[in-house]
């Protein structure tokens, strides 16, 4: 279970960032007072335009950055005071994390398994299962620099899941993947959900959110503009699909861009 309460994150901007913004504003509020809960056995989707605050929310949740205000709770562990316990509970995937390209999938996966203090036999068992599922097995001894974009992404997913975490936080897991690989990832997330895991993803792909997520939050300019099941969001916006619901909310908010 994930509980985010009144989360706010403000970044102090560097001189370079202030120059790039062409104004004298010293702070950037990326996330402004958002709250939501994700249950076990649920896939929750964060949808929003570039710069809306999705990655910032997920980074706070994964305890990689400290919220300015508000609290995070993951399976009873409090983000601020019990960060290590929170991190043990979860998998965090983001395209900002880069694998070391000198190593092979097998070496990298074993390395992360050992970081999680897993026994060698369990590492091998989990690694073989995940390698087989994601089609990494034929490339297990290939240097990561020689892998395709999709294979690197699948390896990142394997590495993030090696310790069989209860909570899965995936930032844009299907971005850059072809339709077959993307389906393998979303199918696996459904499997994990059916095992009772708590899953939160961010995505730009409306069809992925429509097919995969039990509930969705549409976030713009650091605020949640709508939250609920697909049907609840359609009822709120008077639309019958997520694309149109999104644009309805976007236009209502004045077409804000926060990039
Ligand atoms: N470390 C930082 N310092 C300053 N500003 C930041 C920092 N990280 C994020 N921001 C700003 O906060 C806002 C939200 O960024 P965030 O990366 O959370 O958006 P996002 O919804 O994930 O966007 P995208 O869809 O492009 O990935 C943006 O305006 C971004 O420029
Ligand atoms: Mg992002």
The percent range for strand residues is 15-25%
- Following the backbone from N to C, one meets helices and strands in this order, namely EHEEHEEHEHHHEHEHEEHH
Low-pLDDT parts are none
What's the architecture in CATH terms?
Answer: 3-Layer(aba) Sandwich
Q: What integer is the average pLDDT?
A: 93
Number of domains: 1
Helix vs. strand class: alpha/beta
Core attributes:
single chain; 259 residues; alpha/beta; Rossmann fold; 10 strands; globular; binds adenosine-5'-triphosphate; binds magnesium ion
What secondary-structure arrangement, pairings included, does this model have?
Layout: E1 2-12, H1 15-21, E2 27-38, E3 42-47, H2 54-61, E4 69-74, E5 77-78, H3 83-89, E6 90-93, H4 105-115, H5 120-134, H6 149-161, E7 167-171, H7 179-194, E8 198-203, H8 206-212, E9 215-220, E10 223-228, H9 230-237, H10 242-252
Bound molecules: adenosine-5'-triphosphate and magnesium ion.
């Amino acid at each position: 279970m994930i509980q985010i309460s009144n989360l706010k994150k403000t970044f102090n901007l560097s001189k370079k960032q202030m120059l790039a913004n062409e104004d004298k504003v010293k702070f950037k509020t990326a996330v402004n007072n958002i709250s939501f809960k994700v249950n076990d056995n649920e896939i929750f989707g964060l949808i929003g335009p570039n710069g809306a605050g999705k990655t910032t929310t997920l980074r706070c949740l994964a305890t990689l950055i400290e919220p300015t205000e508000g609290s995070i709770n993951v399976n009873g562990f409090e983000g601020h005071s019990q960060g290590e316990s929170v991190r043990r509970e979860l998998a965090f995937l983001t395209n900002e994390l880069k694998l070391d390209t000198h190593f092979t999938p097998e070496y990298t996966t074993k390395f992360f398994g050992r970081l999680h203090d897993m026994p060698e036999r369990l590492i091998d068992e989990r690694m073989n299962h995940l390698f087989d599922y994601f089609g990494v097995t034929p490339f297990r001894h290939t240097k990561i620099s020689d892998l395709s974009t999709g294979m690197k992404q699948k390896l990142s997913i394997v590495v993030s899941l090696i310790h069989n975490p209860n909570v899965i936080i995936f930032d844009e897991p299907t971005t850059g993947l072809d339709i077959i690989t993307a389906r393998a990832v979303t199918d696996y997330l459904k499997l994990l959900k059916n095992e009772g895991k708590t899953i939160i993803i961010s995505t730009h792909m409306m069809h992925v959110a429509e097919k995969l997520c039990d509930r969705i939050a549409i976030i713009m300019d650091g605020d949640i503009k709508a939250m609920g099941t697909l049907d609840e969001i359609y009822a709120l916006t008077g639309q019958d699909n997520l694309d149109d619901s999104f644009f309805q909310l976007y236009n209502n908010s004045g077409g804000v861009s926060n990039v």
